[in-house]
Write a structure and sequence with these properties.
Strand content of chain A: over 45%
Largest sheet of chain A: 7 strands, mixed
Number of strands of chain B: 13
Order of helices and strands of chain A: EEEEEEEEEEE
Radius of gyration of chain A: 13 Å
Helix content of chain B: under 10%
Distance between the termini of chain B: 37 Å
Oligomer: heterodimer
Structural class of chain B: mainly beta
Radius of gyration of chain B: 13 Å
Structural class of chain A: mainly beta
Number of strands of chain A: 11
Number of helices of chain A: 0
Helix content of chain A: under 10%
Chain lengths: 119, 112
């Protein structure tokens, strides 16, 4: 059974940093691209980051480029999102998801970890 | 960025009725080289994460009931539920993955 379990969320002050993790199981992690997608309190979904199966390629929207870094450890089946210079608009539920490639739909999502940026 | 617009924002139907919901993209998500539409539909039930229903605009994900059908091409897409069941209570999102990745605002389906 495919499982994606996020952790690391919490309350952080504006300008602060946080690192999210996603533990994957039930599939060959190194065969898949991985993604972070967030859902705002208004329930809007926003793509946050993509990393290739081997970890060599990463992609970000302009809204987080330079502030967020996606990485992975294929030996440990873990995905990460390092977030810095956090803003109130980064407040959201953060999901990790998997997909076959840059131009494929995300087929499994985790249950999410909540991030609140507030003073 | 390609903007995705869904309508209606919400609808309420009785069990057994047919439902259609719309998704329009600001630019075509049809890739001419392979004639594939880079459009997916997700279902998000209350308290759960999104679940993939449809990809390539009309390909049903494994295990998805055949009452769910995706159609359309280019910039206009439709998700149809042929006979709504109580368990279909959810928000449905469309998502394009051709150019960057963007999502529609969702259609909330309520059961009368």
């Amino acid at each position: 059974e495919v499982q994606l379990v996020e952790s690391g969320g919490g309350l952080v002050k504006p300008g602060g940093s946080l690192k999210l993790s996603c533990a994957a199981s039930g599939f060959t992690f190194s065969d898949y691209y991985m993604y972070w997608v967030r859902q705002t309190p208004e329930k809007r979904l926003e793509w946050v980051a993509t990393i290739s199966d081997g970890g060599s390629y990463t992609y970000y929207p302009d809204s987080v480029k330079g502030r967020f870094t996606i990485s992975r450890d294929n030996a440990k089946n873990n995905l990460y999102l390092q977030m810095s210079s956090l803003k109130s608009e980064d407040t959201a539920m953060y999901y990790c998801a998997r997909g076959r490639g840059v131009y494929y739909a995300m087929d499994y999502w985790g249950q999410g970890t909540s991030v609140t940026v507030s003073s | 960025n390609i903007m995705m617009t869904q309508s209606p924002s919400s609808l309420a139907v009785s069990a057994g009725e047919k439902v259609t919901m719309s998704c329009k993209s600001s630019q075509s998500v049809l890739y001419s080289s392979n004639q594939k539409n880079y459009l997916a539909w997700y279902q998000q039930k209350p308290g759960q994460s999104p679940k993939l229903l449809i990809y390539w605009a009309s390909t049903r994900e494994s295990g998805v009931p055949d009452r769910f059908t995706g159609s359309g091409s280019g910039t206009d897409f439709t998700l149809t539920i042929s006979s709504v069941q109580a368990e279909d209570l959810a928000v449905y999102y469309c998502h394009q993955y051709l150019s960057s990745r963007t999502f529609g605002g969702g259609t909330k389906l309520e059961i009368k």
